[in-house]
Amino acid sequence: MLDVACGTGIVTRRLRRAGRTVPGVDRWEGMLGPAARRMPGAVVLGDAARLPLPRGSVDAVVIVWLLRLLPEPTAVLAEAARVLEPGGVLVTAVDKDKGYFVPDSDIARVTAALRERHRPRVPDGRARVLARAAGLGLRPAGETVFAGAGQGRSPRRWREVFAWGRTPWCAHAEPARVAEVCERLTALPEQDRPRPDPLYRLVTLRKKGAP
Questions:
Q1: Helix (H) or strand (E) holding 207
Q2: Staple partner for 73: which of 10, 34, 67, 135, CB 3.0–4.6 Å?
Q3: 8 CB neighbour count, 10 Å cutoff
Q4: Tens of pLDDT along 55-81?
């Protein structure tokens, strides 16, 4: 099982089991330092679009938060398909920015109209990833969600995020509309109480062919 863009190795280490080999690959040496300390000899420097592995050499590939950072996911998905054996699986996260609004909350309801109106076309959008994957011989094989433990945000925290310009669906919104949403957030009770943790989506894609 290959962990692509393993970063500091937090996910990689959790994937390891008796009888399961889980190397990690990342292009940033600064990330690989902590990863190498967590898992000596189990990480390697490499580009997700040019993996240092032969064709059909792994049973599974895991990509957690990489696709959302790319302008286009196809090259990385193609490399994952290349190194997978026939019947192997790719597990990847999609729709990261939607995760905070999967659980119902007063914040989700206050921001719903603005999010719908200015929904960005993100590289890790589920439909986009599935369409690219289909062209590479990767077919859907399952989905699930997991909670971002301790990542729930309060109304006050969301206003800070807006102020920092870190919200994709606010990037092109009219300032007056953003200010209106901020006012409604300010009016919510328990300004410093985090709302439910986000729920992030994982999809599993299987490569054509018998295992």
A1: strand 199-207
A2: 67
A3: 20
A4: 999 999 999 999 999 999 999 999 999
| Residue carrying structure tokens 């009888």 | 19
- pTM here is 0.89
DSSP secondary structure of 149-190: TT----HHHHHHHHHHT--GGGTTS-HHHHHHHHHHHHTSS-
Torsion of CA 134, 206, 15, 99, to 10 degrees: 40
Q: Is residue 211 very low, low, confident or very high in pLDDT (cuts 50, 70, 90)?
A: low
Smallest CA-to-CA distance from 20 within 67, 52, 54, 62 is with 62
Q: How far apart are CA 109 and CA 115, in angstroms?
A: 10
User: What pLDDT is stored for residue 148 in this prediction?
Assistant: 94
Residue 175, classified by CB atoms within 10 Å of its CB into exposed (0-12), middle (13-18) or buried (19+), is exposed
